[in-house]
Recover the amino acids of this structure.
């Protein structure tokens, strides 16, 4: 493991993945994945169930440790492979603190109020003062439209509200990159819009993001580039509109044909 | 034949009985706390990946869970001194036995409580950049402890009942004092009835508390 700037990369590359492989036991799940996202870019990651989208996303913030390859976020890079030792808890934590992640199941801390959930990262990880962190949390709640829920507990919130709090919690770390793993898949259809509009707003503010999503229209409209994965490989990548409306590979065409034309 | 119940003579033994109650309650509190600490350390160590750590601990837990406390008590009092070459006072042997016995159960309760926390909570904490210890302290334990409280209270109830075994080592707990009074008065019916009532008075509020907590958490 090494933490160093990879100098060959252009300044503007925010996320770089090089030759990443991951197996769970004998089962290969990611087979030589390389991709990059420029600063401010939004990449959507689509593909059938089990193709390795979540695993790749979790490799980006090292919740899952790749077996081989390099992951770079901003100026932090980590190499993995037989010649590299397993990174220490401290280095993993430092790396992860620069990457925000939003999960399908929200994973809010149920024993903390909304505002405490958002303050937790700044206070515990960054060592910021409580008043300072509370101000930040309230500003972020304003941003996601939930200021009046500051003192509510997560079990009093709707799914859409929970997910917006989860986004605010991730943003409180002032990450360089945000990752979304099917952030709207657990929501009732009428609540999807409120979460997507927050993501859309982040995109317009220039946040670098990777979106794993089954919302194909969203993958097309918000993302600049789209990657289609199958069986642990990147099958096709390119401008989001082109990949989704005019895919070249048979596998991509077959996958996209499952989504009604009306939805696209 | 009708038996003439007469509890009045017990009044003159109230000092002995009070000492017995203090020993029973004191041993319960001290061994519950020590057992909880040891059990907590075992539980945390068992979360490690290394088998050299987890296997011996698992063996320890199973040995103490699968042998009677009475056997552990007499083994530690009569047999352990031969191994370590140091005589143990009855109270010391009793403390060691009850602490380790309790620890083996506490460890499983604590480990189970920690394991019951959804992995998504770990993911969320890690994704924020929390280190292992902070994640434990801030996210996992506060949630896990709440779930552990009812089984922990139940274990303390058992722990208190087990202190009655101390009488075999002549530690002056409630039951031992009862035996003393009985041999002085030849009135086992009144004496042992009173002893049972005292245990009940101490334990009934505890079991009620455990039930109440269980019901509250189930909601
Ligand atoms: N922790 C794990 N241990 C073992 N196998 C795993 C683990 N995580 C994922 N896998 C396997 O890796 C493969 C890819 O899983 P992954 O969750 O990355 O797929 P996905 O593309 O996100 O699918 P979905 O659309 O269903 O979320 C699957 O076959 C899955 O069973
Ligand atoms: Mg997935």
């Amino acid at each position: 493991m090494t933490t160093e700037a990879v100098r060959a990369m252009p300044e503007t590359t925010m996320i770089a993945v090089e030759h990443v492989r991951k197996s769970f036991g004998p089962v290969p799940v990611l087979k030589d994945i390389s991709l990059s996202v420029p600063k401010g870019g939004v990449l959507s990651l689509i593909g059938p169930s089990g193709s390795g989208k979540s695993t790749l996303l979790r490799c980006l913030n090292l919740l899952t440790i790749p077996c081989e390859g390099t992951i770079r976020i901003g100026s932090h890079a980590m190499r993995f492979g037989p010649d590299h030792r397993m990174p220490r808890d401290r280095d993993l934590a430092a790396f992860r603190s620069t990457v925000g992640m939003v999960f399908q199941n929200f994973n809010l801390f149920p024993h903390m109020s909304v505002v405490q959930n958002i303050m937790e990262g700044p206070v515990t990880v960054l060592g910021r003062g409580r008043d300072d962190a509370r101000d930040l949390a309230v500003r972020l709640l304003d941003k996601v439209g939930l200021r009046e829920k500051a003192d509510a507990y997560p079990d009093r919130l709707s799914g859409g509200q929970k997910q917006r709090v989860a986004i605010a919690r991730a943003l409180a770390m002032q990450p360089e990159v945000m990752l979304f793993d099917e952030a709207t898949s657990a929501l009732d259809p009428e609540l999807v819009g409120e979460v997507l509009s927050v993501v859309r707003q982040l995109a317009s503010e220039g946040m670098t993001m990777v979106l794993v999503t089954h919302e194909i229209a969203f993958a097309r409209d918000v993302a600049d580039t789209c990657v289609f994965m199958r069986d642990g490989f990147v099958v096709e990548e390119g401008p989001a509109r082109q990949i989704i409306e005019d895919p070249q590979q048979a596998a991509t065409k077959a996958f996209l044909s499952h989504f009604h034309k009306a939805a696209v | 034949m009708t038996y003439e119940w007469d509890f009045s003579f017990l009044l003159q033994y109230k000092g002995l009985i009070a000492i017995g109650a203090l020993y029973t309650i004191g041993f319960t509190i001290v061994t519950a706390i020590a057992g909880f600490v040891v059990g907590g350390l075992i539980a945390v160590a068992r979360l490690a990946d290394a088998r050299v750590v987890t296997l011996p601990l698992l063996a320890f837990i199973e040995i103490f869970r699968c042998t009677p406390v009475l056997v552990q008590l007499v083994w530690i009092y009569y047999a352990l001194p031969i191994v370590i070459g140091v005589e143990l006072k009855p109270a010391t042997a009793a403390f060691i036995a009850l602490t380790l016995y309790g620890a083996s159960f506490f460890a499983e309760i604590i480990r189970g409580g920690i394991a019951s926390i959804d992995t998504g909570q770990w993911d969320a904490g890690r994704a924020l950049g929390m280190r292992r210890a902070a994640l434990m302290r801030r996210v996992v334990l506060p949630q896990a402890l709440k779930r552990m409280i009812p089984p922990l209270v139940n274990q303390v109830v058992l722990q208190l009942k087990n202190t009655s075994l101390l009488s075999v080592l002549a530690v002056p707990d409630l039951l031992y004092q009862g035996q003393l009074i009985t041999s002085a008065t030849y009135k086992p019916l009144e004496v042992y009835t009173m002893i049972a009532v005292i245990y009940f008075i101490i334990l009934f509020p505890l079991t009620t508390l455990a039930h109440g907590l269980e019901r509250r958490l189930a909601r």
Observations:
- Chain B has a mean pLDDT of 92.
- The interface with chain A takes residues 118, 120-121, 123-124, 126-132, 134, 138-139, 142-143, 146 of chain B (CB under 8 Å).
- Chain B has one domain: 20-218.
